[in-house]
Write a structure and sequence with these properties.
With 258 residues, the protein is mainly α. It has 14 helices and no strands. The longest helix is centred in the middle third of the chain and has 29 residues. The termini are close together.
C-alpha cells in the first residue's frame, strides 16, 4: 500500500469533519440574516456583509451596535476589533497550506474560526489541507445561502434564537476544541481564557473579551515555552503543527523515494 493510500482515511475523516462543521455553522446564517433585517439593515447590505466580511462574530457585533442605535463608526470599530483574531489564525494556517497567488487570497477569505480549528486538528498535511478547504468553502457557501434565507424571511422566523441555531454552531466548535484539552497546560489556558473573557463581557465592548482570551494563551505560551513532548520528540502532540508537518515531509520523501 502506498503512502498516498495510507493517508486516504485521514483525508476522508477531515472532509467528514469539515462537512459536519460547515452544516452546523451555515445553518446559523439564518439567525444572522433575520437579526440583520430586523435591525434595519437591508437585504443587499446583509448579503454584502456575509459575502465580503464573512466573519460571524464580527457580523453579529456590527448589527448589534446598529440595533442599539450606535453610530456607523462604532459599528465598524467593534466589528474590526473582533475580526483581528483572524490575523492570528492566518499566521497559523499559512505555513500549513503553503498556497500562492489567487489560492492564497481565497485562503485568506476562508480563514475563520471553524476552518482553522479543523485544519490544525489534523495530523497529516494532506488531511490538514482537505479539512481547511472543505470547512472554509462549505461554511462560505452555506452561511451565505442561509443568510439570504433568514434575511428574506425576516420577522416571519420570530426570535432566531428560539430555533437553537446559536447553540448548534457553538456545540460544533466546542466539539473541535474539546479533544485538544487533554493536556494539563491546555486545560489551564482554557480555564484562564474563559475566566478573563467572562469577567470582561459586562465591562468592555464586544470583541475585547475575545482578544483578551487570545492574549492569555499568548502569555502562557511565552512564560512556559513550547510543550516538552514536542521539544523532545520533534512533534508528537496534537497542537504541534511543526511536528505534524515534519511527519508529512518524511512521508513525502518516502513517497518520492519509491
Amino acid at each position: 500500500m502506498t503512502p498516498v493510500r495510507q493517508r486516504d482515511p485521514a483525508v476522508r475523516a477531515a472532509v467528514r469533519q469539515g462537512t459536519s462543521v460547515a452544516v452546523a455553522t451555515g445553518l446559523y446564517g439564518i439567525s444572522f440574516g433575520a437579526l440583520s433585517v430586523v435591525a434595519g439593515v437591508s437585504v443587499p447590505q446583509t448579503m454584502a456583509l456575509s459575502l465580503l466580511l464573512f466573519s460571524g462574530g464580527s457580523q453579529f457585533a456590527l448589527i448589534g451596535v446598529v440595533a442599539a442605535g450606535g453610530s456607523p463608526l462604532a459599528a465598524v470599530a467593534t466589528s474590526t476589533m473582533l475580526g483581528v483574531r483572524n490575523t492570528l489564525y492566518g499566521a497559523v494556517v499559512s505555513p500549513l497550506l503553503g498556497v500562492r497567488g489567487w489560492r492564497r487570497l481565497a485562503a485568506a477569505q476562508l480563514t475563520i474560526d471553524e476552518s482553522t480549528a479543523v485544519a490544525v486538528g489534523q495530523r497529516d498535511p494532506a488531511a490538514t489541507r482537505a479539512g481547511f478547504w472543505t470547512t472554509g468553502v462549505g461554511v462560505f457557501v452555506l452561511w451565505n445561502a442561509f443568510t439570504l434565507v433568514g434575511a428574506l424571511a425576516g420577522d416571519a422566523l420570530g426570535d432566531p434564537r428560539a430555533w437553537g441555531l446559536d447553540a448548534a454552531a457553538g456545540a460544533a466548535f466546542l466539539a473541535l476544541v474539546w479533544p485538544r484539552l487533554a493536556e494539563r497546560r491546555a486545560q489551564l489556558v482554557a480555564a484562564l481564557a474563559v475566566a478573563v473573557s467572562a469577567a470582561l463581557i459586562p465591562l468592555v465592548p464586544a470583541g475585547v473579551p475575545v482578544l483578551a482570551a487570545a492574549a492569555v494563551a499568548i502569555v502562557v505560551g511565552l512564560v512556559s515555552g513550547p510543550p516538552r513532548t514536542a521539544a523532545a520528540t520533534g512533534g508528537g502532540t496534537d497542537g504541534d503543527t511543526d511536528g505534524r508537518r515534519g511527519r508529512g515531509a518524511v512521508d513525502e520523501d518516502a513517497e518520492e523515494g519509491r
